[in-house]
Specification:
Distance between the termini: 10 Å
Radius of gyration: 37 Å
Number of strands: 0
Number of domains: 1
Length: about 170
Protein backbone atom coordinates (compact mmCIF):
# COMPACT_ATOMS: atom_id res chain seq x y z
CA UNK A 1 0.00 0.00 0.00
CA UNK A 2 1.09 3.54 -0.54
CA UNK A 3 2.20 5.97 2.09
CA UNK A 4 -1.09 7.85 1.48
CA UNK A 5 -3.16 4.87 2.61
CA UNK A 6 -0.95 4.43 5.65
CA UNK A 7 -1.34 8.12 6.49
CA UNK A 8 -5.11 7.92 5.98
CA UNK A 9 -5.50 4.95 8.36
CA UNK A 10 -3.19 6.56 10.91
CA UNK A 11 -5.06 9.87 10.80
CA UNK A 12 -8.41 8.05 11.10
CA UNK A 13 -7.19 6.16 14.19
CA UNK A 14 -5.76 9.29 15.81
CA UNK A 15 -8.92 11.36 15.19
CA UNK A 16 -11.08 8.54 16.54
CA UNK A 17 -9.08 8.44 19.77
CA UNK A 18 -9.03 12.26 19.93
CA UNK A 19 -12.80 12.36 19.50
CA UNK A 20 -13.25 9.87 22.34
CA UNK A 21 -10.90 11.89 24.54
CA UNK A 22 -12.83 15.08 23.77
CA UNK A 23 -16.08 13.37 24.73
CA UNK A 24 -14.56 12.15 27.99
CA UNK A 25 -13.21 15.61 28.85
CA UNK A 26 -16.53 17.26 27.96
CA UNK A 27 -18.43 14.80 30.14
CA UNK A 28 -16.08 15.44 33.04
CA UNK A 29 -16.54 19.21 32.70
CA UNK A 30 -20.33 18.79 32.49
CA UNK A 31 -20.28 16.67 35.66
CA UNK A 32 -18.14 19.28 37.43
CA UNK A 33 -20.53 22.04 36.35
CA UNK A 34 -23.54 20.04 37.59
CA UNK A 35 -21.86 19.50 40.96
CA UNK A 36 -20.87 23.17 41.23
CA UNK A 37 -24.42 24.28 40.42
CA UNK A 38 -25.90 21.80 42.89
CA UNK A 39 -23.54 22.94 45.63
CA UNK A 40 -24.38 26.59 44.97
CA UNK A 41 -28.10 25.76 45.06
CA UNK A 42 -27.62 23.83 48.31
CA UNK A 43 -25.84 26.79 49.87
CA UNK A 44 -28.61 29.12 48.69
CA UNK A 45 -31.29 26.80 50.04
CA UNK A 46 -29.49 26.51 53.40
CA UNK A 47 -29.15 30.29 53.62
CA UNK A 48 -32.80 30.77 52.69
CA UNK A 49 -33.83 28.19 55.30
CA UNK A 50 -31.73 29.93 57.95
CA UNK A 51 -33.26 33.30 57.01
CA UNK A 52 -36.73 31.79 57.31
CA UNK A 53 -35.86 30.47 60.77
CA UNK A 54 -34.48 33.84 61.85
CA UNK A 55 -37.54 35.67 60.49
CA UNK A 56 -39.82 33.24 62.30
CA UNK A 57 -37.89 33.61 65.57
CA UNK A 58 -38.17 37.39 65.35
CA UNK A 59 -41.87 37.25 64.46
CA UNK A 60 -42.50 34.90 67.38
CA UNK A 61 -40.59 37.19 69.76
CA UNK A 62 -42.70 40.14 68.62
CA UNK A 63 -45.91 38.12 68.86
CA UNK A 64 -45.09 37.06 72.43
CA UNK A 65 -44.56 40.72 73.35
CA UNK A 66 -47.91 41.66 71.78
CA UNK A 67 -49.59 38.76 73.57
CA UNK A 68 -48.09 39.85 76.88
CA UNK A 69 -49.44 43.39 76.34
CA UNK A 70 -52.85 42.03 75.35
CA UNK A 71 -53.09 39.89 78.50
CA UNK A 72 -52.01 42.87 80.60
CA UNK A 73 -54.73 44.99 78.98
CA UNK A 74 -57.35 42.28 79.68
CA UNK A 75 -56.24 42.11 83.34
CA UNK A 76 -56.38 45.90 83.59
CA UNK A 77 -59.91 46.07 82.13
CA UNK A 78 -61.10 43.32 84.46
CA UNK A 79 -59.47 45.01 87.47
CA UNK A 80 -61.02 48.37 86.55
CA UNK A 81 -64.42 46.75 86.55
CA UNK A 82 -63.78 45.50 90.08
CA UNK A 83 -63.47 41.84 89.08
CA UNK A 84 -61.03 39.69 91.02
CA UNK A 85 -58.43 38.49 88.46
CA UNK A 86 -56.67 35.86 90.58
CA UNK A 87 -59.41 33.19 90.56
CA UNK A 88 -62.64 32.07 88.92
CA UNK A 89 -63.96 33.04 85.49
CA UNK A 90 -61.49 35.89 84.80
CA UNK A 91 -58.63 33.50 85.40
CA UNK A 92 -60.21 30.99 83.01
CA UNK A 93 -60.59 33.74 80.40
CA UNK A 94 -56.92 34.73 80.74
CA UNK A 95 -55.90 31.07 80.57
CA UNK A 96 -57.89 30.53 77.39
CA UNK A 97 -56.48 33.67 75.81
CA UNK A 98 -52.94 32.57 76.72
CA UNK A 99 -53.54 29.05 75.37
CA UNK A 100 -54.90 30.38 72.07
CA UNK A 101 -52.00 32.77 71.74
CA UNK A 102 -49.45 30.01 72.41
CA UNK A 103 -51.20 27.71 69.94
CA UNK A 104 -50.90 30.38 67.24
CA UNK A 105 -47.19 30.75 68.03
CA UNK A 106 -46.62 26.99 67.89
CA UNK A 107 -48.38 26.87 64.52
CA UNK A 108 -46.05 29.58 63.23
CA UNK A 109 -43.01 27.69 64.58
CA UNK A 110 -44.13 24.44 62.93
CA UNK A 111 -44.79 26.20 59.62
CA UNK A 112 -41.38 27.90 59.64
CA UNK A 113 -39.64 24.62 60.53
CA UNK A 114 -41.43 22.80 57.72
CA UNK A 115 -40.47 25.49 55.21
CA UNK A 116 -36.84 25.45 56.34
CA UNK A 117 -36.74 21.66 56.21
CA UNK A 118 -38.24 21.68 52.73
CA UNK A 119 -35.63 24.17 51.52
CA UNK A 120 -32.80 22.08 52.95
CA UNK A 121 -34.22 18.91 51.41
CA UNK A 122 -34.39 20.69 48.04
CA UNK A 123 -30.69 21.51 48.31
CA UNK A 124 -29.82 17.94 49.30
CA UNK A 125 -31.85 16.58 46.39
CA UNK A 126 -29.85 18.80 44.02
CA UNK A 127 -26.61 17.27 45.31
CA UNK A 128 -28.02 13.79 44.78
CA UNK A 129 -29.04 14.71 41.23
CA UNK A 130 -25.52 16.00 40.56
CA UNK A 131 -24.05 12.72 41.83
CA UNK A 132 -26.42 10.80 39.56
CA UNK A 133 -25.48 13.02 36.62
CA UNK A 134 -21.78 12.44 37.32
CA UNK A 135 -22.32 8.66 37.38
CA UNK A 136 -24.23 8.76 34.08
CA UNK A 137 -21.58 10.93 32.43
CA UNK A 138 -18.82 8.67 33.74
CA UNK A 139 -20.57 5.70 32.12
CA UNK A 140 -20.91 7.66 28.87
CA UNK A 141 -17.19 8.51 29.04
CA UNK A 142 -16.26 4.88 29.54
CA UNK A 143 -18.48 3.92 26.60
CA UNK A 144 -16.93 6.65 24.43
CA UNK A 145 -13.44 5.50 25.36
CA UNK A 146 -14.22 1.86 24.57
CA UNK A 147 -15.88 2.83 21.29
CA UNK A 148 -12.92 5.02 20.33
CA UNK A 149 -10.38 2.32 21.08
CA UNK A 150 -12.50 -0.30 19.34
CA UNK A 151 -12.88 1.85 16.23
CA UNK A 152 -9.17 2.68 16.20
CA UNK A 153 -8.24 -1.00 16.65
CA UNK A 154 -10.67 -2.01 13.92
CA UNK A 155 -9.21 0.59 11.58
CA UNK A 156 -5.69 -0.56 12.38
CA UNK A 157 -6.65 -4.18 11.81
CA UNK A 158 -8.30 -3.32 8.51
CA UNK A 159 -5.30 -1.27 7.44
CA UNK A 160 -2.91 -4.07 8.38
CA UNK A 161 -5.00 -6.60 6.50
CA UNK A 162 -4.98 -4.36 3.46
CA UNK A 163 -1.20 -4.00 3.73
CA UNK A 164 -1.05 -0.36 4.76
CA UNK A 165 1.82 -0.97 7.16
CA UNK A 166 3.89 -3.34 5.03
CA UNK A 167 6.80 -2.06 3.04
CA UNK A 168 6.35 -2.14 -0.65
CA UNK A 169 9.33 -3.54 -2.48
CA UNK A 170 11.23 -0.96 -4.32
CA UNK A 171 9.61 1.90 -2.43
Amino acid sequence: MSWGATAFYTIAAVTTVASAATTIISNEKAADAAEDAALANKQRADAEARNRELEAAEAIKRQRERDKREKAAIRARLSQSGTLTTSGTPLLILGEVAANQELAIQDAVRSANMQASSLRAEGTMGLWEADTTRAALTNKSIAAGIEGLSTAASGYSSASYNGAFTKVKGA
